[in-house]
Amino acid sequence: MNNIASILILVFLAITFLQSSQDKLFNWKDNIDWLKEHFAETPLRNQVPLALVNVLILELISGILCVVGAIEIAVNSGRIYGLYGAIFSCITLIMLLFGQRLAKDYDGARTIVLYFIPSVMAVYWLN
């Protein structure tokens, strides 16, 4: 197991994004209501449902690619799906960070950085 750290980070990202997308799918109305309030004073105030669909799609892509990537590494030491999963994870987190900063939720933005660090590490290791 030469790539155990990469596998662990990919599993971490997969759990993070698949659970988050599952929450968005099954609690859509609650998420929309909360986000409309969260972004009420921003240029995104009228775009919340569309923004949530975009984030949901990116989270699903990120999570699925990370699962496939972890399996690929374990089975044949391949890295391409894991790399794409890590890249999509970074893009998703940057979008979330942008939203949090726009809403002036600096604590929320700080939390996203905690997820961004292992995502960038995965991109570095798998590249």
UniProtKB/TrEMBL annotation:
<keyword id="KW-1133">Transmembrane helix</keyword>
<protein>
    <submittedName>
        <fullName>DoxX family protein</fullName>
    </submittedName>
</protein>
<feature type="transmembrane region" description="Helical">
    <location>
        <begin position="51"/>
        <end position="71"/>
    </location>
</feature>
<feature type="transmembrane region" description="Helical">
    <location>
        <begin position="83"/>
        <end position="103"/>
    </location>
</feature>
<keyword id="KW-0812">Transmembrane</keyword>
<keyword id="KW-0472">Membrane</keyword>
<feature type="transmembrane region" description="Helical">
    <location>
        <begin position="109"/>
        <end position="126"/>
    </location>
</feature>
